[in-house]
Specification:
This protein has 65 residues and is mostly helical. The chain has one domain (4-62). The chain contains three helices and no strands. The radius of gyration is 25 Å and the shape is rod-shaped.
């Protein structure tokens, strides 16, 4: 069983986390993770494809010596 001082400290710690925004950030990130419907393979392929596209545009410009 927790002492009254420990219970009070726990309550103030929770209140402090809420007022500083730590709790809301934690809950927001949890919401985003839970409701994420994105296919990570599609994101990875899109990222790789866009990087390749940029390289194809930039590299020919550097070969003009």
């Amino acid at each position: 069983m927790l002492s009254i001082a420990q219970e009070t400290k726990d309550i103030y710690d929770k209140l402090r986390a809420i007022l500083t925004g730590q709790e809301s950030v934690k809950l927001y990130l949890e919401f985003l993770k839970r409701n994420n419907q994105t296919d990570l393979l599609i994101l990875k392929n899109t990222k790789v494809g866009s990087c390749d596209s940029v390289k194809r545009r930039i590299l020919p410009l550097t070969w003009h010596c």
